[in-house]
Amino acid sequence: MIINNLFRLFFPKYCAACFKPITGLKDELCVRCENNLIYDLTPSQKELKKALRGRVNIEQSGYLFDFTKKDDVQDILHSIKYQKQKKLAVYLAEKLAVKLGPTFFKKIDGILPVPLHQRKLKMRGFNQSESIARGIKNITSIPVKNGYLLRKKFTESQTNKNRWERWENVKHAFELMNQEAWNSKHILLVDDVFTTGATLEACVKTIQEKVSCKCSILTLAKA
Fold it and tell me: For the chain, which domains are there?
């Protein structure tokens, strides 16, 4: 304990939202931001499914934050994506899983993180969706199936694209491996942010065109 306290004295840890020092060894947010952003938050379980209605069949959906520009949520998501804050992604995914509760995950057989193309993975250094998947697994014990869904096409950033451009950008970008393993299963796809839903739509279509299975989706935020 003394060593840990000394370490924090010389190498303080900062809140991912307000950037003030925090003392909790396992915390990623300060007490104030935890209370303001997460404590009373109830994850939405209808909006993502509604947004994809008529496009793909979704069993369940959920997300933690509503993403709005120039607020703490944007800082948190940028910290995960661009500053490689893996522990923060795991931490928030654990919070999401706890708040959703065991009923949501009861019949799910495996978690598939939305994959990055190998070129982009090398550029960025990590896939934030894999960290989110790991956080969900920590709470639910549902296995994470890395490598089963591949991104075979290198795509441009979805930022600043409209809905149609986003869909064209990711259409035919994914490939499902070991297809027979997913017949009659229930897959949970996870990503960081739901904007137009084009990426998750492309993933679900890729899966359901190849196998007869159910798909649900979770993200940390909805833009």
Answer: 1-40 (no CATH), 43-222 (3.40.50.2020)
